[in-house]
Amino acid sequence: MFTIGQLCKQFNLSRSTLLYYDKIGLLKPSARSEANYRLYTEADKKKMELINTYRQTGLSLEEITQIVDSDESKSCSILEQRLLQLNKEINQLRQQQQVIIQLIEQQSLHAKSRNINKEQWVQLLRATGLTDADMTRWHIEFEKAMPEGHQDFLECLGIDEKEIKAIRAWSRQGDSLPE
């Protein structure tokens, strides 16, 4: 059995956090001591590990409660929704990053941004010896193998939505690059 203090220390949580988890029914202690202190079992500890993992994904306590108290299909649904939300947030952050880069327009900032644009990417591919035909095949294979990853990658390069749609369309058809 674990005391509230032991569990707090193990998971780097405050006592008030575990008391709150108890209050909302997320993690109730399995037992009480003779002095009425909360006691947690090994199963409670495993549940706390699960809660901690879900907290790292950014899920709300309400969502975590739903996952912990439901079947696997419900948890997959909630996690898929969170993943879609994260993808949207990442895309918004990339757009913000591009706007900031455009506003500052300093070459030194480009190096610090940990971001690569379309021109830099094409220049890098050409420097490695890839031809236009090679790059076209690269896009076709990327779209075939990982369409959503291809979309994310193109967005990461700061390519506008219209051009991304065009690239993905000819990639799906296996056509050559449009002039």
TrEMBL record:
Q: Cross-referenced InterPro entries, in alphabetical order? A: DNA-bd_dom_put_sf (IPR009061), MerR-type_HTH_dom (IPR000551), MerR_fam (IPR047057)
What range(s) does the HTH merR-type domain occupy? 1-70
Q: Which UniProt keywords apply?
A: Coiled coil, DNA-binding, Repressor, Transcription, Transcription regulation
Q: Which GO terms describe its molecular function?
A: DNA binding; DNA-binding transcription factor activity
Protein origin, superkingdom: Bacteria
SMART domains hit by this protein: HTH_MERR (SM00422)
Q: Which residues form a coiled coil?
A: 76-106
Annotated SUPFAM superfamilies: Putative DNA-binding domain
Protein name (Swiss-Prot/TrEMBL): MerR family transcriptional regulator
